[in-house]
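Course assignment 3, question 2. Fill in each field.
Student: A.L.
Task: Predict the tertiary structure for the chain below.
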Amino acid sequence: MGEQKRKEIKKQQTEFIFGKKNYKWMLIGLGIIALGFVLMSGGGSDDPEVFNPEIYSWRRIRLAPAVILLGFGIEVYAILLNPNASK
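Answer field:
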């Protein structure tokens, strides 16, 4: 009886919380978040005396934060996704 219980405990310890599907969605979400930060970058000026109005472009003010929020939404989905639902 004790041997069987040890085997069950060992089996429970080797199971991961997330499955392959979860990690795939997490990587997709991280890629989208990184894309949002790339879209937000740039627009600065080399000379501090010169103002560059490009920092207020539609891409940096509207698109990049929306892409980042979409990436965080995908991350939440990846965490809440049940990898054993199809089994």
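Instructor remarks: Residues 16-80 form one domain. The mean pLDDT is 86.
Grade: pending
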